[in-house]
Amino acid sequence: MKIILLSGGSGKRLWPLSNDVRSKQFLRLLPMADGGTESMIQRVVRQIRESGIADSITIATGESQLDPIQSQLSNEVSVVTEPCRRDTFPAIALASLYLKDQGTSPDEPIVVMPCDVFTEEGYFSVIQKMAKATEANVAELILMGITPSSPSTKYGYIVPASTEPDAFGAYPVSRFTEKPDTEHAIELLTENAVWNGGVFAFRLGYLTDIVKQYSDFDSYEALRRHFESLPKISFDYEVVEKAKSVAMIPFSGEWKDLGTWDALSEQLPKEYTGYVVNSPDVRHTHVVNELDIPIVCVGVDNLIISASPDGILIADKESSDTVKEHVSVINSRPMFEERRWGFYKVLGHTEYPDGHRSLTKLLHLNPGCAISYQLHARRDEVWTIVDGEALLVIDDKIIKVGRGDVADIKAGQRHAIKALTHLEIIEVQSGSELVEEDITRLPWDWDE
Amino acid sequence: MKIILLSGGSGKRLWPLSNDVRSKQFLRLLPMADGGTESMIQRVVRQIRESGIADSITIATGESQLDPIQSQLSNEVSVVTEPCRRDTFPAIALASLYLKDQGTSPDEPIVVMPCDVFTEEGYFSVIQKMAKATEANVAELILMGITPSSPSTKYGYIVPASTEPDAFGAYPVSRFTEKPDTEHAIELLTENAVWNGGVFAFRLGYLTDIVKQYSDFDSYEALRRHFESLPKISFDYEVVEKAKSVAMIPFSGEWKDLGTWDALSEQLPKEYTGYVVNSPDVRHTHVVNELDIPIVCVGVDNLIISASPDGILIADKESSDTVKEHVSVINSRPMFEERRWGFYKVLGHTEYPDGHRSLTKLLHLNPGCAISYQLHARRDEVWTIVDGEALLVIDDKIIKVGRGDVADIKAGQRHAIKALTHLEIIEVQSGSELVEEDITRLPWDWDE
Questions:
Q1: Do B294 and A330 make contact, defined as CB atoms within 8 angstroms?
Q2: Which residues in chain B have Cβ-Cβ distances shorter than 8 Å to A319?
Q3: DSSP letter at B75?
Q4: pLDDT by residue (tens digit) across B231-286?
Q5: Whole-model pTM?
Q6: Helix, strand, or coil here: B57?
Q7: Where are the beta strands (DSSP E) in A245-310?
């Protein structure tokens, strides 16, 4: 069995930790047994690995998430990036063709699941049951049903056609409903309906056959080049609702969406993360501080406080699910990004009255990682090496650099750097336009 | 009449805006008629100037406050700096000898007052009356009494010897008491006692005669060199309690100590200063944000929130007078300082496992201002000019620099810079020890 993990989403419900480029599944906040922390996506991948149910994990995602995935999961997973965002059906189609091209049999069970679910071991046992039911041809599609804890209006529902499961623990499905109103949700519970958990199992050939209806391109590379030939439609509409037979296997263990500050704070390993000082009378307050400067709380109660290079949030816990709407007015560039080579953090930026700008960043490269050979049309960069050793290339000349060395890189000059150890650079950008997009990437062979 | 303003204090009751080098009197937060803001010391100096009562203002202060005073008041005042802190009597003695050396007559009335009082016009009319009573020899010393609004235990009290003032509005003083307990304070009010406002008037010769009892050095420069010859004692103990005759003139107008966040917030021109976003249901909350990143408040009530490069405070208003005790555990270098040439702000700093450090600063120089010729023993500095034009000196060579220019200054290299326009520099320090004290100042004549 092979797993396709869907890693989408971006947004500001967990601002200032999440933003347009840093989705919630990448926040390294969840407690691990060894006292460390991990992100939601790291947790799910670890749980899959520990359950031993899958031969491989393929993550289907957008280009913008490639860097954080490589940084957090390195070579534990394969990654399939959509050239543009076109909803879940095209994403799953592309990942399926990738698996086919890797030599996966058309009969192989594939399980698609979200990467940002906070759940327990039993969830992965149900996934294994779903794969077995797929192998046994119980139905074209097997879905996971989440046993409802309340008549929630936040989820779609699956209504079973029987009250007794078959030998594989599966129930035939009678119908699906969209997110209901409360009255309708209460009615659905009397019909033993369950929440749709967004987990789907099918044979690989089943999906590749559907793709053929839309596209002449049946290799991964070809479909990726002609990605727009696929309709912009969700897997639920395109596949689930059209399937001839659908079954559901229920899961009733811990299953949470840590998508709001209030929900996330319940899972934090401690009430205070980072440099935090509290008066003894602080109550029911969670603080996550990613800045280097201290947060001091005196006499406060029932707050969520979070600070990152993007900004500072102070919210009453009960109101914290409205954060997204209030931060929508903030339209600044990302101030922290995880990259395949490490991460950067913006330390300061200024726009001068004549439109000239400056931006100061800390760049942290992991040993052996490199920033690709590149040039910028509209900015100079000054790099001061403050820690570590590296190979620096400027206009095709390569030199070894270390602490105290300075590179004065003018607009138009080609440059690259490869870290030989952990490497920290202070980068001062200066120019008329300072955006990540002002970049021309060039080839460079470090092994030459 | 001449005024001596005492500018002392440092501390963390208004942290993170105030710190060991940035006393509360320098916070530019108070509203001005033109819509701008001014600091407490700027407000007091402006009020003295507008009242027209004084020929000159001399500020007695410590070395560390010279830079912010010059930056905020430029040439409106004279400044006398104590070579070390030795309490109020030595400070006033030094300022008095300075006035004597400037040619002030021994008969000239001198009024000593604090620089951080938040008060109104009438206060300065009382000061004028005090000077007139001094001229008329009503007593050796005239004090200002503040009409009490409550039996406060925060102030010393002055008990008058009569219930009727003389022709100058002065009451003879019967005795002084230290800060009383509440019971004693209630008793004092029945005796028509007033708070001691820390404002003293005397003839210049009266004080210089007292200084002679301690020191053979009767010029300003000589006394400054032998400052330790004066006893470490307050003006109250050394002068007020020993005076043969003391009178008091009362003041009953607005008079406040803006020394806590709760008191200060009542005087702020608006509830939100800086980059602040609030949900509509935020109530009774004051936010002062000196950072470039946004503070977002959602659903909070009755808070003081303040952020500066030193840190972030979130305090319940009622608890905000305890801020000082909770921040006492924070022992970091100042992250913002006003300097005679402008200001600096720390953007980031790191200590590496081997003890090496890096520190990145934004330096802002005002036009015509210069950073003195200097060298550092234990750090390199890389300067990137991000705005403006300047004259740069390195090892006695002077060149003109502007945007995009980079100076790579190694430990031991002599360097200075003079701003020809507003100038911004990103400075990256790197070395084994990064403290303001690692500096050797050298002479350099810009007019050569």
A1: yes
A2: 279, 281, 298-299
A3: G
A4: 999 999 999 999 999 999 999 999 998 888 988 998 888 899 999 999 999 999 99
A5: 0.89
A6: strand
A7: 246-251, 255-257, 272-273, 276-278, 286-289, 295-298, 303-308
